[in-house]
Structure formats: C-alpha cells, structure tokens
Predict the structure.
Amino acid sequence: MTDLGTSPDEVQFRFRDDEPADHGTVTVDACCDQTNATAVRIEPGDDARALLPFLDRLAMVEVNFPTFGDGRGYSSARILREAGYTGELRAVGDVGIDQLSHMRRCGFDAFAPDKPLNVADAERAFATWDNVYQRTTDGRKTIQELRHE
Amino acid sequence: MYKYDSYDQAMVDARVDEFRDQARRRLDGSLTEDEFKPLRLMNGLYLQLHAYMLRVAIPYGTLNSVQMTALANIADKYDRGYGHFTTRQNLQYNWIKLEDAADILADLAKVEMHAIQTSGNCIRNISSDHFAGAAHDELVDPRPYAELLRQWSSFHPEFTYLPRKFKIAVIAAEKDRAAMRLHDIGIQIVEKDGEIGAAFYVGGGMGRTPMIAPLIRDFVPLDQLITYAEACLRVYNRYGRRDNKYKARIKILVHELGKEEYKRQVEEEFAHMLEQGVEPPREELERIKPFFADPAFEDGAKSVDRSDPDFALWVDRNTHRHKHDSYVSAVISLKPVGGIPGDATGDQMRLMADLAKQYSFDELRIMHTQNVVLPHVKIADLHALWTALDAAGLGAPNMDSIEDMIACPGLDYCALANARSIPLAQRISERFDASGKTGKLGELKLKISGCINACGHHHAGHIGILGVDRKGVENYQLSLGGSEAEDVSLAKITGPGFTEDGVIEAVETVTDVYLAKREGEERFLDTYRRIGMAPFKEALYD
Amino acid sequence: MKVLTGNDLKTGDVIWWTGSSWSRHVDDAADAGETADEVLATEEAARRVNVPYVIEATREADGSVRPAHIKDRVRALGPTVRPDLTLKPKDPEALDWII
C-alpha cells in the first residue's frame, strides 16, 4: 500500500528525542479498518476522535494543512493530546513561520512544511510568547495561574 | 478601569515585535501579499480604497484620557488628523502607511492598547454595554467577564484560523445596548437562585444572512464561563463551513445543524473540556473585578437648571440614568448635523479626553452607535460639560433620534462597498434638522450600510438602508422594522430600490406614515409592528 | 482602454501604470493593452505595486482618463465626503466627475 505521509527527511523541526521511524502512513479510515498501522495522516475534514481507540499503537500522526487558513488541524492536534497521545504529532503542508508558535502550543512536536522555512525566523517564532493566556496540553502554566501562585 | 500588569504588557509588546518582523518580511519580499494579508489583518491592518486602514481595539469600549489622547496624537502624527469610531466600539484610521504601522502599534502599546485581532478569522474585540458600570438597570458590571474573555481570546492557539470572523458581546442588563443577539456569541450575565452566571446566545449576526442568536444555555456557572466558550468555539472550528466564505459564519452552522443538535455537540465537548482544566483560576476574576469598582461618587444636585432650553434639550436627549442619583452618563454625539457619523478630529479627541478627566473619573466609552460616553458625570457639572462640548461642535442633542444614525464608511473609503453611505447620512440629518421633524419622531434608529456585509447594521434599523450597485450606479434598498435591542428583530425590505434622492424621499415618506398612524407614545418601531408593512409600502410605491 | 492600478506597497497610495512607472494621478495612466497581465506580474513580483488589477477606462477629449466604475473613480480622486483630502482639494467640480 502506498505511504501517503511525509518522510523523516522532510521534517524540518522536531522537538522529540526518539528516533523518527519511517512509517507507512495511512488515512484515518484505513487506520480504523486495519489494526497494524502505526502512522496515520489526518486531513482537515477527518474526525480526530475516530483514532482514540487506536492511540496505543500509533507512533506518528501527521496533520495536513492544505492551506494555512484552514484551522481544523489545531483542534485535531489538541484532541489527540487531550486524549493522552504521546507519539509524534507532525504538522505538514502549508505551514508557515507565523503558525509555528500556535501549532506548538496545540501539541505539534514535528514540522514538515511544504516550503522549507528560514531557520532563524522559525526559531524566533517558536519563542514568540514568554507566557500565554490559555491552558493547553503543552504543560505551560498560564498567565492567570502564574498571577495567583 | 483594567490596568495591564507586566504579563499583559509583555504580550502586547511581543506582538509589536512580531508584527514589525512580519512587515519587514513583506517589504523585503519574503512574504507574498497572500501570505501577509491574514497576518496584517490579525493586526487590524486592511488595504482600503485610498490607503491602508488600521483598526484599533477598544476592549469593551472602555478607555481613559491618556488612551484617548494617544489616539488623537496618532491621528495627527500618522494619519490626516482624524479617526472613525465604529459599530464594534473600535477606532479606524483611514490613511496609514505600512512602513509606519509597527511604530503606531508601539505607540499604542505604551498606553496599553493594540490592534490585535481586530480583523481576520479569529475572535475579535469583545464588545459590551457602553453604560456598563454606570447604568441604573444592570445586574453587575459586565466588563470583568469581558476582560476575562479578552485574555482568553488573545492569541488563542486553537482559534486563530476559524472558518470566519467571530464576534462576542457581553451584557448584564435586560436592556440590550450592545446588539448582543446579533453577535456570534452573545453573553448575558444573569442571576439564578441567587447565583451569578452567564446565558449563552450563539449564532447571531448580520451580513448577507442576518440571524438572531438562539439561546443555547440559560445558565453557565461563572467558574465555567471560559470552558463553555471554548466548547462553543471548538465545535465551530471543527464543523463550521469552509467551502463557502458566505456560509462560514457560526450562524450558518447553528442554523444548518439546528439549535438542538449544535447544543448537544457543545454540551458533549463541554463535558470533555471540564476535565481539561482550561478555566482560569477563580481568583483571576476576583483580581479583575476591583479594577472596575465604582469610583468615589459624591452626593450632589439631583436635577439641573432648565432655564436654557438648548441645554435642557441636550440633557433630555443625551443623558442616561446612572445608578447613583447625583450622576448621569452623558453621550457626546459624533453626529453633528451634516457631519460624518463617527468621525472625530484629533482636537476633538483631546477635548473629550480632557473632559473625561475633569468630569468623569477619567473614563470614556465608545458606543456601538459611533458616539462617545462620559459614564459618570455629576448632574451638577452637566452645564459646564455641555457648554464645553457645544463650543467644540460636540453638543448635538440627538441621541437615538433619526439624526443619530449609524453609517458605515461606505464607498468613500471601503474596498468592499457598493455605494456611499456617508452622503446619505449627511443629507438626511440636514433635512430632518432643517424641517424640525427630528424631535417629533422621537426614538428612530436609522442604520445605513454601503454593502451587504452590513457594518452599518441596516438589518437592525427601525429604518435600514442598504446601498447596492445597480449596473454601476448607486442604488438603495429601504427596510423597516429592525431592532438590535432587547426587542431584537430583523428589518424587512420595502420593495424595489431607490436612487440617492429617491431613498431620502422614501425616508421622509415612511416617517410621514408613522406620524399619521401612531397611537399614544408609540415609537416608529411600535407603529410599524402594529400596522405592518402594507401602509408604508402603499405610500412608497403607489 | 485597459488601465492598471494598485496600491503602493509601502505607503498604500493608489497608483496607476504610466507605461513605464507608477503615478498617483489617474490622468497619467497609459493603455496597457495586451501587455496588462505581463506588466502586472512583473511589477507585483518586484514589489513596485501591491494587489494590482486591470480596469476599463476611457480617455476623454481633454486627455484625462476616466475609470469605468465609480469605485475606481473614488480611488482616483479621494473620498467624496472629504473634498479637502482629495487630490483636487481646490476644484469644487472634481466631485461631480466621480458620480
């Protein structure tokens, strides 16, 4: 079966220590049908919650952003992290400098942009916010929590 | 008033740096316009007919004299000496240069202001009742809740690329002065069994498909407010339509799913969200509340000397009952006869700032009707205040009259417009002022939009006018019977459109019908609701 | 005639293609004819114009250029409600040209 995912070579930024494995990436539908897939690709219209029964065996989930303006992938990412998924969560497609910090906060820990990004600009973008207002699963304390420590 | 702490300030400062970098990348060609556009829009920077336009957020419409003065100085330094107050309690500059935009944002940041999320498909500036904290009829001051929502919605990582823009209004009185049910989410702070909570109305809006938001939940406990909002937004972000820009607002989702199904999905997500601990600690609301505590009101005169009829008229028309009986809220009209609705010069802004400092505990509010409020004015100071306003051309006694119309910038400024709005507003106010009919008509809300996007709220006008393009010529549709208030309704089109001259005559005609048919103390809207469209149609087209 | 217009990237000013460069005055506009798309692509890529597009216009007997659509006439002159801020603040008849 064809691997429709990105290869580890295409990953430009990765915030994990484990070895990126080269996976046979399948669609969400295929993942639900077949019990041995370890990597899956979520398209914007897919329901990330369909994957929840299989999280234990998934090592890599990539979330496709066909256009950066389609923000459904942010919800998909958070839903997986909220459900306890700890494997690689890779943002792929039309991923630009200005989306990086929000994606990181929603749980993405690998980035494979269609167009490689300027590394200095990207590093600045990842570090944009010293503190944040919203609680996500990224483990950071919110500004409101810091205020009342 | 809310004061930034170092965290809030750091957020705004970081945003200035981020935008400066984005503008640099646009100017050096690293970003194409297609890539830059959504970024500049999220900082309120549009490209309009004549130049860039910058929309500055005025959170829940509240600002102090230092901020108003800063807005005036920016108008003088970077623009052409004026600004335009909008129906979402914001301020727009019409003549901005891209190369100056980051410097302007830096000037704003110095006075705890910004242009963050004043455009783009994200959560926009939170709007509220312009008499919040002053009105005699409110349950509590809604602004602490609006501030909580402001923080939550600023740079929300999941909700920055929504299907479409998202507007939230918060009120805390039965009387709706913020068009709450015509927002994507309208929140009313309510009391139930002695406890304060929030009623959520979701899926209202104007635009090409106007809808009144249905009640989705009548009571959300205050320590779950943000969590419930997050659930509402997640369902929208995941399932709102993205295939058609014109069907992408949440009102379409709620309409297509049905209120019950949308509610079911929200409740399911809400139950899940409650386990995620996204709600800010309860202490945060308690930290915010004292910023909005009452100033030190003093007892004083409870009535004015009415011997000057011009002053007495202004007091009758332009003041609103305050919760303290020695005070009123005073409305500064930005609708001088023949003027441009909502425009104020730098000098006028500085004067309003000075007057706020002198007479209103340093506070000003922006109304969705494009006027300015001094929320806490001693009744004893009213004459001095009015004298100063009148001398500066800011004393028009016309609140809620036909001369107090809302008008969007229209084809004079806006790239989306199909027809001009402002000239209509000018001609109608001149005409009704000259004939003396304004006073006879009483409360009559006229709202004019230059295109179907309805920034001029024409769907919610007792009389609404919509400018359209008919084969390259400006044409205007008339509608009747809308209201943005607690008696919310959507206006209905009278029939075929009119020329510019024709629609002004048509407004005259429908007001004549009202005057002939009204009973007792009926407002135009009441008469319309009683007698229906037919008599108006007959007078217009037969 | 076909006229090219857009905004200056830095200042946002409305500008018109003269055949060799960009002018703030619509009367300087040249007929771009068949070359329109090519010029737009080159000029936009070089960031000498932002969000450019082609419009229909006519050259009047006095040599002036009149865009076919009212929106572009408003762009060419300025807001009709602020004659003082238009390109012809001293010409009271300029506004009639727009309508």
Notes: Residues 6-110 of chain B form a domain with the Sulfite Reductase Hemoprotein; domain 2 fold (CATH 3.90.480.20). The longest helix of chain B spans residues 6-27. The longest strand of chain B covers residues 185-192. DSSP finds 17 helices and 20 strands in chain B.
